[in-house]
Amino acid sequence: MSGDPAVEEQRGDQQSREMDADRSKESTDIHEKDPQGAPETGEGPLPEEESWTAVDPSMVENLSIGLLEICLPSLQKSKSSLDDLLQNQQFLTESVQQENSKFADCRDIEELSKTMNQSRKYHTKLINLKKEMNFLSDKGVKLKRRALKIQQQKQKEDLQRVQQRMREQEREKMLEAKVVKRSQSPT
């Protein structure tokens, strides 16, 4: 069995010719035997053990070759079918593995999507906090200005009160002084 189809075909043709020749020889041998299968020589039927030893080795070889010729094409077809099946199975296995990896990627994408959604929420919260902090900062600046104005106004009012008191005290002193001067002067 060299594996070369041309050589095997030539060998098969030769073997089939030999088998045809052997068959024709067997058929003539069968016709010469009596109905019980014994040769016409008058010896009678052969015991079973002797019939196995009486088989011609070339006949066994030819029958084996014939059987191979009959079975070999179907076996080769079966082998090629099995090879195709194994190849398809390998392809399907790889396809399933690729699909599984896609599903794993989909899970990763889902997790990434969830993370992105959370980051958007946190970003929105951060923007709102910044706005609120800016608002509070502006409000704080306004309150500081107002407090400064109020403080300045209080200081001004306090200064005015102090000045007013000082004026009143001066007026009182002036009034007292005039009264004193009148009492000191001899009239």
Automatic annotation (TrEMBL):
Which positions make up the signal peptide? none
**Extent of Basic and acidic residues compositional bias:** 8-35, 154-179
Broad class of where this protein is predominantly found: cytoplasm
The record's section on Pfam families has: Snapin_Pallidin
Q: Which UniProt keywords apply?
A: Cytoplasm
Output the Gene Ontology cellular-component terms. Answer: BLOC-1 complex; transport vesicle
Localization annotation: Cytoplasm
Region of interest called Disordered, as start-end residue ranges on this chain = 1-57, 154-187
Tell me, what does this protein do in biology?
Answer: Component of the biogenesis of lysosome-related organelles complex-1 (BLOC-1) involved in pigment granule biogenesis.
| Homology family | Belongs to the BLOC1S6 family.
Q: What is this protein called?
A: Biogenesis of lysosome-related organelles complex 1 subunit 6
